[in-house]
DNA sequence: TTTATTTCTAATCAATTGATTAGTTTTAAG
DNA sequence: CTTAAAACTAATCAATTGATTAGAAATAAA
């Protein structure tokens, strides 16, 4: 009996993700979202509840996209060079757009710091842990390093990928390439 | 004949800088500023014009503080180890507060990306160039490297200090120390 | 066709924003 | 003292925010 939805939720979330990616959470208004998603504020509320939850759903979608990079990374885990390949893939993914939007995850970390919403923080932490596990696996590939070395190199890679995410928002491709190359001179 | 100001502009700017540092530009309201600065919105307007200009003045103050780190860096420029010392000093400066506020410059870069206000962008660029010049001086100290190596190492350090600024907002001190140590294993 | 149910449109809500104003108080020169 | 100029207080402005509402439109089951 009911009237049927005239939009696809997966499609409009894709649009919302793009707006948040480009502008951040606070600078994105529901009216901007409404316009870009092609539905009005009532429909946003009906499908996603509120702005915060729409942001969370956008982050989830973003994560599924990053998950594809992680999948490739996992399937091609042959040591340091594989980590480096992931760094390049990550940089390319962050640069896919005509605009310099950086990485939505890193942008969100920077915007909220430690005072991030609980669910958002959990999503980011979960992703970060998954990534670190892959770093660890590849750091240990075909070599024997003591635990302290592994731990230090893990922290190094963890902070380096964060720096790379920030860099894709404000630096040019040459600087980014130099950075990645130099980063892996160490390992 | 006129009534005299009941506040010191240098002091209230110090307060304003702290609020912007902790919350970013957009999340800081004039009412928050008014409260922390101890003067009302009219006085903010009288002394600084508007929010944007108060932010610019706060950034200028922040820069004068960083300038002291640069001075020490410049006076102690004996090669790679001096760069490393600056990294530690920078991390310590960013961590001086009970809160994790990161670096106001890096925070601002992340908040606005390439669409930053012209004057704010010029201030940040100017600082970045000054810092890079010191990096270069120390990279070249007592060694002969080809121009391409210098250029790559400069980009590496430039992005690494950005990553460090981000890290001081969200990572613990151990991770930061590991990061700095590992960064300089390369050079 | 009828009808119950859901979606959609467009307007509006209170709260907050940056900014400004009218009116009062203070101050130092004359 | 008197007084002109500046600073102060407190209120208010229009614009924007996230969120909600009332009523119209659409749809599929009966």
SSE order of chain A, as H and E?
HHHHHHHHH
Quaternary structure state of the chains depicted: homodimer
- The whole-angstrom Rg of chain A is 19 Å
Low-pLDDT regions of chain A: none
Chain pair with largest interface: A-B, 39 and 39 residues
Helix content of chain A: over 70%
Q: What is the CATH superfamily classification of chain A? A: Tetracycline Repressor, domain 2
Which structural class best describes the helix and strand composition of chain A? Answer: mainly alpha
The 3D shape of chain A can be described as: elongated
Please report the total strand number of chain A as a whole number: 0
What fraction of residues of chain A sit in β-strands?
under 5%
Helical segment count of chain A: 9
What is the name of the CATH topology of chain A? Tetracycline Repressor, domain 2
Kindly give the count of domains of chain A: 1
CATH architectural designation of chain A: Orthogonal Bundle
State the end-to-end CA separation of chain A. 63 Å
């Amino acid at each position: 009996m009911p009237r049927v939805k005239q939009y696809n939720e997966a499609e409009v979330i894709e649009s919302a993700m793009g707006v948040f990616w480009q502008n951040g959470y606070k600078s994105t208004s529901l009216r901007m979202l409404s316009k870009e998603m092609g539905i009005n504020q009532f429909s946003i509320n009906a499908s996603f509840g509120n702005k915060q939850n729409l942001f969370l759903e956008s982050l989830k979608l973003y994560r599924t996209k990053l998950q594809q990079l992680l999948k490739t990374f996992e399937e091609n885990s042959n040591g340091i060079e594989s980590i480096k390949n992931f760094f390049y893939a990550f940089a390319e993914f962050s640069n896919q757009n005509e605009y310099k939007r950086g990485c939505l995850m890193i942008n969100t970390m920077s915007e909220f710091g430690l005072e991030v919403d609980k669910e958002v923080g959990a999503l980011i932490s979960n992703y970060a842990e998954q990534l670190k596990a892959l770093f660890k696996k590849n750091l240990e590939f075909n070599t024997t390093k003591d635990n302290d070395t592994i731990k230090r190199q893990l922290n190094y890679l963890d902070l380096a990928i964060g720096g790379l995410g920030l860099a894709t928002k404000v630096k040019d491709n040459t600087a980014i390439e130099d950075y990645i190359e130099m980063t892996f001179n160490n390992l």
